[in-house]
Amino acid sequence: MDFLLPKLSATMETAVVGRWLKKVGDAVKTGEPLLELETDKATMEVESPVDGKVIELMADAGAELPVGAVLARFETAGAAAAATGGKSAKPETSRPPPKAPAAAAATRQAAAGERILASPMAKRLAGIHGVDLAGLTGSGPHGRIRARDVLAAAETRSEAPAEARPAAPAAVPAPIATGPLPANAEPLSPMRSRIATAVSLSRQTIPSFVLDRWIDTTAVARAKAMLGPEVEQSASVKLTFTDFLLQALADCLAQSPRMMVRYVEGEGQPALVRSSSVDIGLVVAVEDGVMIPILRNLADKPLASIATARQAAVQRARSGRLAQSDSEPASMSLSNVGRAGADRFEAIIQPRESSIIAIGREHDKVVPRAGGIAVSTGINVTLSVDHRLIDGVTGAEFLGNLADRIELGPWSAH
Amino acid sequence: MATQEMTYREAIVLALQEEMRRDPTTLIMGEDIGESEGPFKTCQGLLEEFGAARVRDTPIAETGFVGASLGLSLTGYRPIAEIMFADFLGVAFDQIVNGIAKHRFMSGGKVKTPIVIRAIGGAGLRFAAQHSQTAESWMLSVPGLKIICPSNPEQAYLMLKAAIRDDNPVLVLEHKALMSMKGPVPVGTEDIAMPTGPNILRQGSDVTIVGSLAMVGRSLGAAELLKDEGIEAEVIDIQVLRPMNVELIADSVRRTNNLVVVEEQAPTGGWSSDVVADVVSQAFDYLDSPPARVTLPDHPLPYSPGLEDAMLPSPEKIAATAKALLE
């Protein structure tokens, strides 16, 4: 890459090259002094912007050069490290030169930390729809990316069939009957047939069993009343019961590596894949079906971030536009029927995942407590696991941890 | 209760009449409000009906009669003071800011101060620099005061009645250019509540336009112009300047993602800046363009009709500002 004369102060237009502190063939590290420059303000050392090797020095000591002139060429250690400008002793004035030569321009897109001009709404929508702002051209003033640009990108993408939620894997095991349909039969909507394929595949291929646990939620209700207004104030998002479940699940998953696995087959062999981050699929009821966006990297996330991510995920699902990141399966999904009528239910594990947690409606029941009887407010939690990878002991331990976590806290809001 | 078509001015008169009939402790004071019935005829017929003890002509001494309102309120009356031109509020500044606004608090809540100060302000009628200001922001930063701004006859009627019944000091800013505006008024309304925030007057999905007093009508005019260009503007009357509540505006911006605030005051130190600041705080992630403000230029209002008209935010200017946000 080319190393260009950086602008080291607001008024600087040229600089006189002082002493080179490196010579051709020297290895340099990011931040290592490279040469001295005399500017209109002072003489200062300029640091290397990259890790690499000096392959050519292109400016002689004593030469006065304009900002943007090529000072040296580097062979860089990694293309990702390529930055167009030098990192100077005064970082606030160090910017990429206004006109980068062609070689540097080619690396611009990859330059880390380059500011993308986008409206707050556009950034928010990009998060919801999983659109990468770096790939967009803004239609607003100064090339600012507007909400409409993000929506157009999401629209274009959702028209491409490959982007639909791949709930159904390629192989459909059961042949579909080829005989005539009854006269009054209606075709399934695309979503219904995807669900039909997915759940059939799950039932036919995943040998699962279920475990149950009653979990008292009094503490959650109390924490929600205390932390809810605070989070709403700071993060502009309403805390829901699901956010607490997600934080508890994330904590328990992070401590249960045996649950963070997925069953795969290939080369004629069964195998397992370990999840590298705590991801949870969230079953979202939508018109005529369900969508399962995935919440990523939930480990150690405070409730405010979880609620924000959950809200974005629900919006993705409701808008019918899941993101690319939703197509990689998680190890576990969460299905919460909320206030609907069921006390408990068993959910069907998503193909390619290994467990699913089903939450019944919150209700009161009489329980023994301290030798007497008491009324407990809580939920039935039903865990379905893929027995190919997860045994009863593992599942039961996980449920036990989850119960302790939900009943005892602690909850971190921020 | 029946709805009657009447002017903004008649709505003010009606509210005063109904409330003075309802409560014998109410009385009104001001310059030329007796036999002359007020410079804008907002006290028409009051002297005749209620007599000189309850409809008191005062000398040109705002400090005196505004100060007297505080004394009256402390001794069981519900005084209403009319400030002929809102520009004269400055004369009684100390009485309002240090006396009226603070008395209830400084007595530890032991006394009530049910005082209404009505002030007629605004430009557009060739009254020049000292008689054309809305004074909307002058007392914006004074805790203890409520400041409300009716933008149509119905609001003039309902807000003034609510102000008179309120046990706290209320500054009612009326606009002289609206005096002849006609509209339906729910005559005889008994169930009165003080407005607590803004009101959506026209729904739209593309941009939110917020105004007060005469700027509300101009914003509605702008919305009509924008409609011709396929832009749906939501128009909101701020109604209550103090205590300011922008929640509804923030909600609107969450839907439209764009905000224009129109204020008939100079560009600095006004309520439009507060609206923008609060909306940015509450709905930052929903903004798709930098919020814009349309205000008067930083200059006293001129007498020259051509110059005065040019200074005021026109529907065309508001529409152009909104349109620029969407480009």
Question: What do you see in this structure?
Answer:
The complex is a heterodimer of chains A (414) and B (327). In chain A, a hairpin with a 2-residue loop joins β11 and β12. Chain A is α+β, with helices and mostly antiparallel strands and 414 residues long. Chain A folds into three domains: 2-108, RNA polymerase II/Efflux pump adaptor protein, barrel-sandwich hybrid domain (OB fold (Dihydrolipoamide Acetyltransferase, E2P)), CATH 2.40.50; 120-163, E3-binding domain (Dihydrolipoamide Transferase, Irregular); 208-408, 2-Layer Sandwich (Chloramphenicol Acetyltransferase). In chain A, the strands form five sheets. In chain A, strands 10, 13, 16, 17, 18, 19 and 20 form a seven-stranded mixed sheet that branches. Helices cover 27% and strands 25% of the residues of chain A. Mean pLDDT of chain A is 81; it is low at 79-111 and 161-173. In chain A, α2 runs parallel beside α3 (147-159) and α5 packs across α7 (303-318). Chain A starts with a strand and ends in a 6-residue tail after the last helix. Chain A has eight helices and 20 strands. Chain B is α/β, with parallel strands linked by helices. Chain B has two domains: 2-187, 3-Layer(aba) Sandwich (Rossmann fold), CATH 3.40.50.970; 199-326, Rossmann fold. Chain B has helices at residues 8-22, 46-50, 62-74, 93-100, 103-106, 153-165, 214-228, 247-256, 271-283, 305-311, 315-326; strands spanning 2-7, 26-30, 55-57, 78-83, 116-121, 146-148, 170-175, 182-187, 199-202, 207-211, 233-237, 240-242, 259-262, 292-294. In chain B, the strands form three sheets. Chain B has a seven-stranded mixed sheet with strand order 3-2-4-5-7-6-12, sandwiched between helices. A five-stranded mixed sheet of chain B has the order 9-11-10-13-14, sandwiched between helices. In chain B, α7 crosses α11 (315-326). The longest helix of chain B has 15 residues, at 8-22. Chain B is globular and about 60 Å long.
